[in-house]
Write a structure and sequence with these properties.
This protein is an alpha/beta fold. 55% of the residues lie in helices and 12% in strands. The chain contains seven helices and four strands, in the order αααβαβααβαβ. Strands 2-1-3-4 form a four-stranded parallel β-sheet, with helices on both faces. Helix 7 links the parallel strand 3 and strand 4. Helix 1 runs antiparallel to helix 2, helix 1 packs parallel to helix 3 and helix 2 packs antiparallel against helix 3. It is elongated, with a radius of gyration of 21 Å. It starts with a helix and ends in a 5-residue tail after the last strand.
Length: 171
């Protein structure tokens, strides 16, 4: 049943206690226990979920890798006292998207009516939507030049009622 499937997924994703495993076994045989256990497991699971940071690379692909590596290093340094293992690292999603790749100039950023601008805009907004769909809390774009799109992107994000936050590397 669907409750058992959900709990099995949670168990595969998280280390769980014997009590949680017992709840899964009980749920497999009793739908009422399944419903109650499912709520409890979701609540416990949500406590462990960290916010996810999105990084949009692709225009200067090395910059995406570099900023991700730097974020991990800084996080580890700032949390030395509590950083015990890989599970203490932040959740970072690097969207290395060649569709936003450069070099950039007037041909793809200066003329909003050009097919090149349209293609770049579509690739950029599609990437932001993917980050939103996977639950990223915020994102940055690793290319300085692409920050010229920032005002329009912020306007578009507001119109689309996106919850993800654009963190400018320029500010």
């Amino acid at each position: 049943n669907t409750n058992t499937t959900k709990m099995s997924f949670i168990l595969q994703q998280e280390r769980v206690s014997g009590a949680t495993k017992s709840a899964l076994h009980a749920a497999q045989s009793n739908p009422l226990v399944a419903a109650a256990s499912s709520k409890k497991l979701r609540k416990n699971h949500l406590k462990k979920v960290k916010k996810t940071i999105g990084v949009i690379g692709g225009s200067g692909p090395d910059a995406g890798v570099q900023i991700t590596t730097t974020a991990l290093k800084i996080h580890k340094e700032r949390n030395q006292a509590t950083y015990k293992s890989d599970t203490d690292a932040p959740n970072i999603v690097l969207m290395q998207h060649s569709g936003v790749g450069g070099p950039h100039g007037y041909w793809d950023m200066g003329d909003m009516d050009s097919p090149e601008y349209f293609n770049l805009w579509e690739e950029m907004t599609e990437t932001i939507m993917k980050l939103e769909m996977i639950g990223a809390h915020c994102f940055c774009i690793t290319c300085n030049t692409l920050h010229a799109l920032e005002p329009e992107l912020r306007k578009w994000m507001k119109e689309m009622n996106l919850k993800i936050e654009f963190v400018s590397i320029i500010e």
